[in-house]
């Protein structure tokens, strides 16, 4: 019985090591080719890396560390960014349409003019995020922390803001038509 447990533990370590090796290989591919569509970068450390304009459409970046990374104009459409650390990162003009950012950490991130249409930002920590003129139409921001966020001129048409924290949030000129507000009421105009 003890031999079986040791064999299972060893097999698990080999699989884990193979997965880490695969992630490292795909990180090298991303840095070289500036593209890694559909690749698995889960848990990768890309902190402070220059990734402006890269194509990561449909990529898995779950729990990745992108702290202070430059992803300006990057294509992250339909990417899995659940639990990702994008604190103090630059995503100006990035395409995150349909991406999963559930429970992501986006504190003090710059996402001006970003495309977040239909993105899932449920439970995301977005304190101080800069979303001026960003498109969040149809986005799910339920339970998101938007304390001190700047959403001036943002398109939040049809977005779900139920139970979101909007304390000291700048919504000047934002389009809230049809958005579900924190109290559950739909914004009519």
Describe it for me?
By secondary structure, this protein is mainly α. 17% of the residues lie in helices and 0% in strands. It contains one helix and no strands. Mean pLDDT is 92; it is low at 1-18.
Brief synopsis:
With 189 residues, this protein is an all-alpha fold.
Which structural traits does this protein have?
single chain; 189 residues; mainly alpha; 0% strand; elongated; disordered N terminus
Order of helices and strands: H
Instruction: Please state roughly what percent of the residues sit in beta strands, choosing from under 5%, 5-15%, 15-25%, 25-35%, 35-45% or over 45%.
Output: under 5%
Question: What is the radius of gyration computed over CA atoms, rounded to a whole number of angstroms?
Answer: 18 Å
Rounded to the nearest angstrom, the distance between the terminal CA atoms is: 67 Å
Largest sheet: none
Tell the overall outline. elongated
Strand pairing plus helix content: what structural class?
Answer: mainly alpha
The beta-strand count equals 0
Work out the helicity level.
10-25%
* Overall residue-averaged pLDDT value: 92
- How many H/I helical runs? 1
Low-pLDDT ranges = 1-18
């Amino acid at each position: 019985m003890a031999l079986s447990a040791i064999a299972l533990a060893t097999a698990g370590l080999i699989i884990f090591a193979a997965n880490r090796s695969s992630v490292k290989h795909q990180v090298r591919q991303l840095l070289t080719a500036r593209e890694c569509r559909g690749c698995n970068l889960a848990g990768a450390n890309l902190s402070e890396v220059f990734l402006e304009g890269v194509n990561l459409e449909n990529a898995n970046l779950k729990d990745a560390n992108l702290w202070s990374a430059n992803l300006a104009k990057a294509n992250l459409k339909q990417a899995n960014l659940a639990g990702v650390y994008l604190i103090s990162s630059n995503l100006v003009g990035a395409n995150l349409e349909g991406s999963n950012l559930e429970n992501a950490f986006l504190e003090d991130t710059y996402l001006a003019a970003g495309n977040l249409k239909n993105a899932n930002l449920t439970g995301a920590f977005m304190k101080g995020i800069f979303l001026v003129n960003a498109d969040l139409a149809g986005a799910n921001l339920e339970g998101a922390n938007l304390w001190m966020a700047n959403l001036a001129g943002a398109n939040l048409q049809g977005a779900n803001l139920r139970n979101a924290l909007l304390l000291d949030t700048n919504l000047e000129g934002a389009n809230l038509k049809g958005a579900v507000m924190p109290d559950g009421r739909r914004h009519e105009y």
